[in-house]
Amino acid sequence: MSKAFYDVHQTTQVRKVTHYCLLGLIAYYSLQKIRKLMRRMGDLAGVEIEPEQQTHLLDWSIEQAGVVGGGVPGGQLCSFMRWAIF
Fold first, then answer.
1. pLDDT higher than threshold 70 for residue 79
2. Using an 8 Å Cβ cutoff, are 21 and 86 in contact?
3. What is the count of structural domains for the chain?
4. Distance from the CA of 27 to the CA of which of 34, 49, 69, 84 falls in 20 to 30 A?
């Protein structure tokens, strides 16, 4: 393998990793904003969209490696959570 080919390959790999990291950050902050706005909407409507117990569980889960975000679809009506994992 020539040095020039190796250098191009390494640069391409770094760009791919940078691209995926950037997408992960965008997804993380987008999902956090959605959760914040959903909680606000629930507060204004007097409805518990994301119960406190699930908020603690989601916050803890999102801190784990590889997890970008999560949410509670339907609030109290559903007993499961959705996850976005890279």
1. no
2. no
3. 1
4. 49
